[in-house]
Design brief:
heterodimer; A: about 450 residues; alpha+beta; Uridine Diphospho-n-acetylenolpyruvylglucosamine Reductase, domain 3; Vanillyl-alcohol Oxidase, Chain A, domain 3; 2 domains; eight-stranded antiparallel sheet; six-stranded antiparallel sheet; 20 strands; about 25% helix; B: about 250 residues; alpha/beta; Rossmann fold; 9 helices
Chain lengths: ~450, ~250
């Protein structure tokens, strides 16, 4: 059977789609599929909302096209099929002294997914976004024909494809520039930030290669914005074998993430790091992909699922971000998963999320009040001159998103040329009406 | 056989997901891999993947179970490879039983792909293992070969023939120190089973491949994988024929 009936969701499990899914295992099979039934590609479906969904339509599952096609040990350039997981590259190459230049928060994301969302990592302030390290990629159009494009070759199509949510075609393979690393362990320093101002100061003055901040989105008053800054450097040495990943066996009941539980958890999590900080050694995967060792952790939010709100605001709008944090803290709706980070200006596509500034990401269990809060936060992000991240979104309005992404009309034009019949439209693109320029 | 370093593995039917998963494991252990199958372009990509993962070498050669003239190339290549010669046969095809009922000539292809092709190939390879007094042959059959059922009995019959052949070959090679293992996978999440209704307890190709290599190292003779298929099939085999013929399991 070529097409299998499936009901799929994004990682947040709020939006669902009934799809006919094909899973080609060979490049020739993929090309044949596109010739007969062009359809959007999906990878590991780690986007939170409806970016990987196509309700009532066809989808091509790319996870079996996951091979490494070549690696140059002198230059660190690697060519891979789009379905390879980014964590697999870290696992294989860190011991040889190379890492993908940008690693998102989960190693389960596919390389093609990293490109289509122009993802960022804990080193965005130094290395920019994922797409900036893509030397070229092979894109299959709605006719199944392959085109090799890059930053200098069909530059506009390339800039519409990186961060382009799969709308220009299916990414069969890509050439990536990796960066040298010292080995497959991390030296990690954790420091407490007692409040929002101190947190920004720590972020602004950090000279570490990798930084990420956990923020207590329930703390209020003087403790507003308190959290822990993690700074990491790669290193070498011997570490015990990783423990086997555990899985969440079923949906958690809704009180698991109720306000008092989250407040208690956050206080304990904050106090775990001594006031004077601490340094430890971790395995590389533990630092970059902390949640990957708990399979299906999204079930912790119960069957109603959850939303993640992520925005970035310019550096000078830090005050606006503080207001957003106040709004979140006083709502009492946040979960323990909240991240604050400084971003550099690096971005590679017309619809790329990053801008120089501060980015805040907070998870909320899916409740009516949370949906209202997220709409309010989107409004505040727009007023602050910022953006929301489409890989996380399932609630925004098209008008707001188009106002946030200044290159959107250009992108829509490029996409109209690449896929005039709208064969690669996904639920997210339909919901936000992203194909129309205004 | 504790590690595949300086071993040579011929992998037959190398475009299947199970074969690819198996090739990856032996490649990461440093084996020399010879990928044999029909889609040369695809196998070249898998060969590159094997090299990137640490294979001592990896090459792709054309092989078609229905064309005996293609049987010599993989064997010739294996003679050049380092260490002991080993082979894993993942080849097979399963057309819809309904299609076979409509066109019985399809039986020829099913038998060639699942039984006579691989058997003739292994028969050409066996003297090499005997001569060297080492090596492992892994033949992947199917639980479908344990009893003929209305849904896929032509495929099952070919797999049963292959299993009987492997049992005889095991008997023969045991005298020289080489080993033959028969594998009977249950439902595996491959292109062959994608979208077929009624699948349950489906295992990933990665899990099956790891299981196969582990069992081969322990010189197991017959492997059901995942393990519980041994019990499922014991029950299915135990059903008396007068009852079984009326069932549609």
């Amino acid at each position: 059977m070529q097409w299998k009936d499936e009901i799929n969701t994004g990682w947040g499990r709020v939006l669902k789609a009934r799809e006919k899914v094909a899973r080609p295992e060979r490049a020739a099979a993929l090309a044949a599929l596109l010739e007969s039934t062009p359809a959007p590609a999906a990878g590991m479906r780690r986007s939170y909302g409806d970016a990987p969904l196509n309700d009532g339509g066809h989808v091509i599952d790319m996870t079996r096209l996951d091979r490494i096609l070549g690696f140059d040990g002198k230059t660190g350039v690697i060519e891979v099929e789009g379905g390879v997981r980014i964590g697999e590259l870290a696992r294989l190459y860190a011991p040889q002294g190379w890492l993908p230049a940008v690693l998102p928060g989960t190693g389960f994301a596919t390389v093609a997914g990293c490109i289509a969302n122009d993802v960022h990592g804990k080193n965005h302030h130094h290395m920019g976004s994922f797409g900036q390290h893509v030397k070229s990629l092979t894109l299959l159009g709605p006719d199944g024909k392959a085109r090799v494009i890059g930053p200098k070759r069909s530059a506009n199509l390339f800039r519409a494809t990186v961060g382009g949510l799969g709308q220009t075609g299916v990414i069969l393979s890509a050439k990536l520039q990796m960066i040298p690393c010292k080995g497959d362990v991390m030296m990690v320093t954790e420091r407490r930030a007692e409040n929002f101002e101190q947190f920004l100061e720590l972020l602004d003055h950090s000279s570490a290669t990798y930084t990420v901040g956990w923020i207590d989105a329930t703390a209020r008053g003087e403790a507003l914005g308190r959290g822990i800054l993690e700074e990491g450097e790669t290193g070498s040495g011997l570490m015990p074998k990783p423990k086997k990943a555990r899985a969440v066996p079923m949906n958690a009941p809704h009180f698991a993430l109720s306000k008092p539980v989250v407040k208690l958890f956050n206080r304990a999590y904050f106090s775990r790091v001594p006031a004077h900080g601490r340094t430890s050694v971790k395995r590389i995967g533990e630092f970059f992909f902390p949640l990957d060792k708990i399979h299906d952790w999204n079930r912790l939010y119960g069957k109603r699922g959850f939303h993640q709100f992520q925005c970035v605001v310019p550096l000078e709008a830090a005050g606006r971000l503080r207001e957003m944090l106040e709004t979140i803290a006083s709502s009492g709706l946040a979960s323990p998963l909240a991240v604050l980070k400084r971003m550099g200006p690096g971005r590679a596509g017309m619809m790329s999320f990053p801008m120089e500034g501060y980015t805040l990401a907070v998870d909320f269990p899916n409740r009516p009040q949370a949906r209202l809060l997220i709409a309010r936060l989107g409004e505040m992000a727009e007023a602050a001159g910022g953006r929301i991240y489409l890989a996380k979104d399932s609630l925004a309005s098209g008008a707001r998103v188009k106002a946030m992404y200044e290159e959107h009309p250009k992108w829509a034009g490029e996409v109209a040329g690449a896929d005039p019949e709208g064969r690669f439209v996904t639920d997210l693109v339909r919901r936000l009406d992203l194909r129309s320029p205004a | 056989m504790n590690s595949t370093a300086s071993e040579t593995w011929i992998i037959l039917g190398a475009t299947s997901s199970m074969a690819r998963a198996f090739a990856r494991i032996v490649a990461e252990e440093g084996a020399h891999v010879i990928l044999a199958g029909r889609d040369l372009d695809d196998m070249k990509r898998t060969a590159a993947d094997c090299r990137a993962r640490g294979a001592a070498g990896a090459e792709a050669v054309k092989f078609d179970a229905r064309r005996p003239e293609s049987f010599k190339a993989p064997i010739a290549r294996a003679k050049e490879g380092p260490g002991s010669i080993n082979a894993a046969v993942f080849i097979g095809s399963m057309p819809d039983q309904v299609a076979i009922d409509a066109d019985p000539t399809l039986i020829r292809g099913v038998v060639a792909d699942n039984f006579t092709g691989p058997a003739e190939f292994l028969h050409r390879l066996a003297p090499l293992l005997e001569e060297r007094g080492a090596g492992t042959i892994i033949g992947v059959g199917s639980v479908a070969g344990d009893r003929g059922r209305i849904g896929n009995y032509v495929y099952g019959a070919a797999k049963a023939g292959f299993a009987t052949y492997l049992s005889g070959l095991r008997n023969r090679l045991a005298r020289s120190g080489a080993h033959v293992m028969t594998v009977k996978p249950g439902f595996v999440d491959t292109a062959m089973t994608w979208g077929i209704e009624g699948m349950f307890l489906v295992a990933s190709p990665e899990k099956i491949a790891a299981d196969i290599l582990r069992a081969a190292r322990r010189k197991r003779n017959i492997l059901y994988t995942p393990f519980f298929w041994r019990y499922i099939m014991a029950i299915i085999r135990a059903i008396p024929e007068p009852i079984f013929k009326k069932l549609s399991v």
